[in-house]
Amino acid sequence: MRTSTVSPSGDEDDRRVRAFQARIDAGEKIEPADWMPEDYRRTLIRQIGQHAHSEIVGQLPEGNWINRAPTLERKAILLAKVQDEAGHGLYLYCAAETLGVSRDELTAQLLDERMKYSSIFNYPTLSWADIGAIGWLVDGAAIMNQVPLQRCSYGPYARAMVRICKEESFHQRQGFDIMIKMAKGSDAQRRMAQDALDRFWYPTLMMFGPPDRDSVHSKRSIAWKIKFDTNDDLRRKFVDQTVPQADFLGLKIPDPHLRWNEDEHRYDFSDPDWGEFFAVIKGDGPCNRERLAARRKAWEEGEWVRDALLAHARKSAARRRQEKAA
Ligand code: BYC
CA 259 to CA 239: how far, in whole Å? Predict the structure, then answer.
């Protein structure tokens, strides 16, 4: 892969950077063997790597309920969803690998906390209704954020997103279906549904990232078509889409300032507690330690599988070499 190793300084570098930006502006896809500025490559590794880690860590809160799903059908659906998340993680690690970073390296960076994963997965799942709320709200937010990424300038990421988005739609639908059952069920079920909405609303709004004034990467990522909307714009779109769904369920969004703004034709709403968001992404949320401990345990316990695969691959390669030589 050809990348610049220094920031553009001479005429030649300036020309290459301008030509690169022109390709992006013209809607061309950048492919792994193409020249790209080092910062573009690093930004993609950061975003795709974090995204992959989110899919993998994101299995934990829902995996917690597979054994406690209320019916066999719900259990089969949840199992399929959690397996899909593992698949999304793998597509994304493969996309990141095309940028010259190995999956082992990305995992090492997650485990020693140099890389992040989505803040949302640091909140616990306390009841079955939380599984509905995750599908409805968390996957709903994920779709809002990920649909534009299908047009990302980097080919392998864009193509991975096409498949991921298809599966996310099913995830969102199954979550909303759980919420319908709960919200229209007994009083106790309705209370559980409202409680899940109360706890997941603001953490879901945080998924879109810090407010625009604190977003360090947005401007450049938008210019590079690695991002298409600002964090606040996507958050607003999500609120506008979700409030009527909550009305349909007969549930109340836990925001006393939520109002329809007739002039601007959108909802006004309260910001999440940004102090809480920054604490969570620094490692100080309700479940950060538990999540990382689970990933470290899985990594350590999987060592024999990795060793066995490597030994098998080496043996097969040696056999192929012998056959070729014979
Ligand atoms: N959580 O400059 P900003 C899923 C960090 S998986 C943690 O605005 P950017 C699902 C940000 O990384 C959902 N950290 O950043 C899976 C940066 O720190 P660094 C995952 C966050 O990149 C299973 C700093 O804050 N989706 O849906 O322009 C089951 C400043 O932020 C968060 C993706 O990853 C956060 N919420 O924008 C169910 C989608 N927000 O890196 C569902 C792809 C911000 O400088 N990613 N930070 O140390 C993106 O679209 C963008 O990376 C973001 C952030 C919108 C998330």
Answer: 11
Of 193, 46, 49, 58, nearest to 119 (Cα)? 58
Residue of 39, 40, 51 to test ligand 1 pocket, by largest number of atoms within 8 Å of CB: 51
pLDDT digits (tens, 9 = 90+) for 34-78: 999 999 999 999 999 999 999 999 999 999 999 999 999 999 999
Q: Which amino acid belongs to residue 196?
A: A
Q: Which of 115, 117, 118, 152 to mutate to test the pocket of ligand 1 (most atoms within 8 A of CB)?
A: 118
Q: Is 183 exposed, middle or buried (0-12, 13-18, 19+ CB in 10 A)?
A: buried
- pTM, entire model: 0.94
Ligand 1 pocket residues where CB is under 6 Å: 46-47, 50-51, 54-55, 58, 85, 116, 118-119, 138-139, 142, 145, 206-210, 215-218, 221, 227, 231, 281
